[in-house]
Amino acid sequence: MKIDMHAHTHNGASVVSTDFSAAKVRGFAESIAALAREVEDYGALIGHIKGYVEPSGAATFSVTDASTGVSVIYNTDVKLGLTAICYNITPEKLADYVLTALREATDNYALEAELCSEEHTETI
Amino acid sequence: MKIILIAGFLGSGKTSVLLKLAKYLTESGASAVIIENEIGEVGVDDKLLRSAGLRMKEVFGGCICCGSSGLLLDDIASLRGEYNPDYIIIEATGVAYPLEIRCNIAEQFGIRAAVLGIADCSRWARLWNAMPQLLGDQLGCADLILLNKCDLVSSEQKEAALEILKTVNPAAEIQCFSAIDGVDRTELWKGFLV
User: Fold this and answer.
1) Predicted complex ipTM exceeds 0.95
2) A→B interface, C-beta within 8 Å
């Protein structure tokens, strides 16, 4: 599956954003947390990473013992969107990290991104 | 019609503050519509605002202080014509320069937008060290500055941030704030909206 991923810079910040529908989403929050760690370990400064999940079907919860975290799985045609705005990192590198996070979140390691780079007017 | 511009760095809490302000306005019987600007091509904060029942327009994929300034002015004119609201609340992107936006609005509509600046106390030291120019420009023209996320920091961190903010904008009222603490801010909003 190939998704469009928009990437550009604005006043020194790299901005990467995408939205698409996935068959399943698991652990989106954990994937975003992992993305944040990857970006900071790289040496970038996080401006903001934010996203949404819009399921059309039910979310299922599962826990088998108290020491394990609860697994939340959104099944069936889930729309998700994510925007990452970071400094000291190129848009392309940031897009790589975002794609990794989305592959984890959708359990789809065949997910590919078509990078759409646009020119944006900047203040400085 | 009055215009309020909410400005501040990425992740500082602009949307959370906007929700608080919009709730106050609605409960006071005033009508408000929102213009939401996102620098990315994908809307995220609009989902939250719509789920709170707010009327809004979105400007995505550009910044209303520069490349998308024309779209902002069109939206203001359109909202004024359609709703004639008491207030238009504009949430700028976290990389926007609010003075540019205020100047464009004044030039087009003859209205001086009130600027509500949001500063992130929990990341203040790190962000000020990395980009003092942007933060200074964003908060330097604010009429009221909310030092947000004060519930997450020590009193020393808070005092250090306040000291810098007072030099960045000596004329502004500065208030320590938490967008999620449930404290009644009626007097704060009344004072700002006069």
Assistant:
1) no
2) 6, 10-13, 15-19, 45-48, 50-52, 54, 81-83, 85, 87, 118, 120-123
